[in-house]
């Protein structure tokens, strides 16, 4: 039987130019984390140390250890699951091979060898600049040369990420000892028809002895089947009766079936392959209709409004992201009502731990191929690497039922048309051949069970603008960059794959990341941890459309920018969800951060939830009330994404900010499962002027509509009582208290609240649960509470 021996101990890191200092190295890991552990560099996440360590990415580095491949088996392979990125592997100075792709694994025959193993990494900058010199300039959204090599693009920096260009053995390395034959690749093709699961396992083997007869035996759900290997490949097929369907969260359960495939020579077991699969069907409905061209995911015949978030690498040093950290972050997503996670194209094909968690949590995965915001050359040496990585990762990820869509790239088709690339390229290759040729061919050949789309955004044809909201996927970035979030309501895209609004991270995150700095919106550290072009200017202009800008008051600025982020995303999701089924999904930019930074994330770089996160829990719940202003006036949309009818009566109140009920009515409604019902607001209940607002309540849910921006609303001075209760605090309002927020991390860095922004009418109360706060105190809680106040 194949035996695997991890190679994790005894590694050292040395500078390739022969510096005397030799450092212990962690494998998996990277140069930055080793230098950090040894105290050679400061933490680049703190202050402005990012710039102090820029030299690391410009140098060459070598990892070394002793290797002994002695074994009683016929062959021993040295296997690297991931090398970042361009390296030479040698044993006692004899070259084993050269590699140039972070997104691939590598295998070298080291049978019977021993000696000093070295992995010499060339600076990613040097490699990228060499390829650029050979193939010519290609335009990109950023000045860094990430499009010239197959590496995580965002390690070169992004509008939310630092420039920390990594190198290292970033995934596990091991020796594999085997005889006669081993399993080289398994492609599981999984289908379900009329309750019967169909599993076809296409098996490729590598042999040491061509003449040895081989068999494979597979078991799934108590069903067993055998097949012979003809040469280097074979197929074993199984039918599993009465299978339980795998569903996305909120639609059903997530049963997973263990698959075991055993390779044998006679009675001798040679190798075994184990995975988990789920039985489900997935389609992408892109039919034309009266509104344009749809983009609706259909799982097990059920049409979905996708409640999504965009995922970026959770750490700029991805070797630090553990199975537990993946689980925590994805659990946060599921708890917020998310049912789809888009793995964005400037990052990675994530580890098995990521997809395992999504399988178990019922989170659908939209997987980008790693191309983002740049024109990518299609010539060698890149083209062969792109095909090799695509083939490997398509097969690697196939077992996961959570994976429902392959996407060719992020924004590159759009960039070609709108960002001035076409004249600059002057006919040079830029990636179209990947997205419309190579990648769909690889997916169709290897994984025909899943749909493929050429890019995001993509209208489906060059006959239309790539980002046409009426066709396919749409990215909405005029809002934030130039327009107010009220403009989300100007159209109804078929599927909104990116949109968002910035806000700073939690206060405790800033205090940790900027030690000793007096915090201000434009303090040196705050500006360094703001990577977006004119990011603070956009934050300011976004605030000034709604609020009086709090000059010189950092705490107020911090609170209002958090409120504005939550309101912006709410404006989009509420509008688009109310227009289901024309709009079939929203994917918020973004769920997470890779370091402490002002960004579009709902969860900051230290894992703390922003108010946006809690707002997503409301926006992505099965049931949502939203007041939409349409041509005929305010209208209540009753959004019911549950399977069952939602019927009842909504209480509508026209109120003054002083707490007086000006008018009131009870209006019945009924929304069938997976539908939206619209309820007209009586004319006499429409609020007039900045002193009035409209409240809709039904079944514990609330929608509020203020017709004027906050800067014009004459809010009363907020009055409320705070009391300590078991597990948290209770706030009782004596006046209107709009957008009350407990910033629990101001009480203690470990404290977390279960509630975000909440609006209370006079006499109402809310209990906010707080964990991680060991010394509850009402006065301290009051000091950490923020809400809307009268204009100053």
Describe the structure.
The chain is globular, with a radius of gyration of 28 Å. The longest helix has 24 residues, at 554-577. A hairpin with a 4-residue loop joins strand 33 and strand 34. Helix 4 (323-335) packs parallel to helix 5, helix 6 (382-397) packs parallel to helix 9 (432-446) and helix 14 (554-577) runs parallel beside helix 15 (611-619). The strands form 12 sheets. A 6-stranded antiparallel sheet has the order 3-2-4-9-6-7. The chain has a 6-stranded parallel sheet with strand order 27-26-25-24-23-30. The protein is of the alpha+beta class and 792 residues long. It contains 16 helices and 44 strands.
The average pLDDT is 97
Number of continuous helical runs: 16
Radius of gyration: 28 Å
Gross geometry: globular
Set down the secondary structure blueprint:
Elements: E1 3-6, E2 12-15, E3 22-24, H1 31-37, H2 49-52, E4 61-68, E5 75-80, E6 86-91, E7 94-100, E8 106-109, E9 114-122, H3 124-135, E10 173-178, E11 181-193, E12 196-207, E13 214-220, E14 223-229, E15 233-240, E16 257-265, E17 268-277, E18 282-285, E19 288-289, E20 292-293, E21 296-299, E22 302-303, E23 306-311, H4 323-335, E24 340-343, H5 352-361, E25 364-368, H6 382-397, E26 403-407, H7 412-418, H8 421-425, H9 432-446, E27 452-453, E28 473-475, H10 478-481, E29 495-498, H11 507-513, H12 524-528, H13 535-544, H14 554-577, E30 585-588, H15 611-619, E31 623-630, E32 633-640, E33 646-656, E34 661-671, E35 675-680, E36 692-698, E37 701-705, E38 720-725, E39 728-733, E40 737-742, E41 752-753, E42 758-760, E43 765-771, H16 778-783, E44 785-786
Parallel strand pairs: 23-24, 23-30, 24-25, 25-26, 26-27, 28-29
Antiparallel strand pairs: 1-10, 2-3, 2-4, 4-9, 5-8, 5-10, 6-7, 6-9, 11-12, 12-15, 13-14, 13-16, 16-17, 18-21, 19-20, 21-22, 31-32, 32-35, 33-34, 33-36, 36-37, 38-39, 39-43, 40-42, 40-44, 41-43
């Amino acid at each position: 039987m194949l035996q695997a021996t991890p190679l994790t101990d005894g590694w050292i890191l040395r500078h390739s130019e022969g510096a005397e200092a030799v450092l212990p190295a962690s494998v998996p890991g990277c140069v930055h984390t080793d230098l950090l552990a040894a105290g050679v560099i400061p933490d680049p996440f703190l202050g402005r140390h990012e710039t102090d360590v820029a030299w690391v990415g410009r140098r060459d580095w070598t990892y070394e250890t002793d290797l002994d491949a002695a074994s009683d088996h016929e062959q021993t392979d040295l296997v690297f699951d991931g090398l970042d990125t361009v390296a030479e592997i040698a044993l006692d100075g004899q070259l084993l091979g050269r590699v140039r792709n972070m997104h691939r694994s590598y295998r070298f025959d080291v049978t019977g060898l021993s000696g000093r193993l070295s992995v010499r990494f060339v600076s990613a900058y040097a490699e990228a600049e060499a390829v650029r010199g050979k193939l010519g300039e290609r335009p990109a959204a950023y000045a860094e040369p990430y499009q010239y090599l197959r590496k995580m693009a965002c390690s070169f920096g992004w509008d939310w990420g630092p420039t920390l260009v990594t190198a290292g053995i970033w995934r596990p390395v091991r020796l594999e000892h085997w005889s006669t034959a081993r399993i080289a690749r398994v492609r599981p093709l999984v289908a379900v028809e009329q309750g019967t699961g169909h599993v076809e396992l296409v098996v490729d083997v590598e042999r040491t002895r061509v003449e040895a007869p081989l068999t494979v035996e597979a078991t799934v759900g108590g069903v067993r089947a055998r097949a012979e290997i003809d040469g280097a490949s074979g197929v074993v097929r199984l039918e599993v009766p009465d299978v339980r369907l795998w569903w996305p969260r909120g639609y059903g359960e997530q049963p997973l079936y263990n698959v075991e495939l055993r390779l044998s020579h006679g009675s001798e077991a040679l190798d075994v392959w184990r995975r988990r699969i789920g039985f489900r069907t997935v389609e992408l409905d892109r039919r034309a209709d009266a509104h344009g061209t749809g983009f609706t995911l259909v799982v097990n015949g059920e049409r979905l409004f996708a409640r999504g978030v965009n995922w970026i690498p959770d750490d700029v040093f991805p070797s630090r992201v553990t199975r537990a950290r993946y689980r925590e972050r994805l659990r946060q997503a599921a708890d917020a009502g998310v049912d789809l996670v888009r793995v964005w194209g400037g990052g990675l094909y994530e580890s098995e731990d990521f997809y395992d968690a999504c399988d178990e949590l019922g989170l659908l995965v939209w997987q980008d191929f790693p191309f983002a915001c740049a024109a990518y050359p299609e010539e060698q040496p890149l083209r062969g690497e792109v095909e090799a990585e695509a083939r490997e990762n398509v097969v690697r990820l196939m077992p996961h039922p959570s994976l429902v869509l392959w996407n060719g790239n992020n924004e590159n088709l759009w960039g070609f048309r709108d960002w001035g690339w076409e004249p600059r390229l002057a006919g040079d290759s830029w990636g179209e051949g990947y997205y419309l040729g190579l990648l769909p061919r690889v997916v169709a050949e290897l994984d025909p069970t899943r749909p493929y789309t050429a890019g995001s955004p993509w209208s489906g044809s060059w006959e239309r603008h790539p980002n046409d909201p009426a066709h396919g996927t749409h990215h909405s970035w005029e809002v934030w960059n130039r327009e107010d979030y009220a403009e989300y309501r100007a159209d109804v895209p078929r599927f909104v794959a990116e949109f968002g609004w910035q806000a700073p991270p939690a206060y405790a995150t800033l205090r940790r990341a900027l030690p000793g700095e007096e915090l201000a919106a434009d303090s040196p550290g705050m500006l360094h941890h703001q990577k977006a072009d004119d990011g603070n200017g956009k934050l300011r202009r976004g605030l000034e459309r709604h609020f009086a800008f709090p000059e010189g008051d950092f705490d107020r600025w911090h609170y209002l920018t958090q409120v504005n982020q939550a309101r912006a995303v709410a404006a989009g999701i509420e509008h688009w969800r109310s227009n289901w089924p024309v709009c079939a999904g929203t994917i918020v930019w973004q769920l997470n951060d890779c370091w402490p930074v002002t960004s579009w994330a709902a969860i900051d770089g230290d894992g703390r939830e922003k108010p946006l996160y809690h707002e997503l829990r409301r926006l992505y719940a099965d049931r949502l009330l939203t007041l939409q202003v349409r041509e005929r006036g305010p209208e209540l949309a009753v959004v019911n994404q549950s399977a069952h009818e939602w019927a009842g009566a909504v209480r509508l109140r026209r109120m003054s900010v002083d707490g007086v009920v000006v008018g009131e009515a009870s209006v019945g409604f009924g929304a069938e499962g997976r539908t939206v019902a619209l309820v007209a607001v009586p004319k006499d209940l429409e609020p007039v002027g900045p002193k009035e607002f409209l409240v809709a309540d039904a079944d514990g849910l609330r929608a509020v509509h203020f017709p004027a921006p906050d800067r014009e609303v004459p809010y009363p001075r907020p009055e409320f009582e705070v009391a300590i209760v078991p597990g948290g605090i209770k706030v009782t309002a004596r006046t209107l208290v709009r957008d009350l927020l407990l910033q629990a991390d101001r009480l203690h860095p470990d404290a977390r609240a279960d509630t975000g922004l909440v609006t209370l009418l006079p006499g109402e109360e809310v209990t906010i649960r707080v964990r991680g706060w060991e010394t509850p105190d009402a006065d301290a809680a009051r000091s950490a509470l923020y809400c809307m106040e009268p204009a100053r």
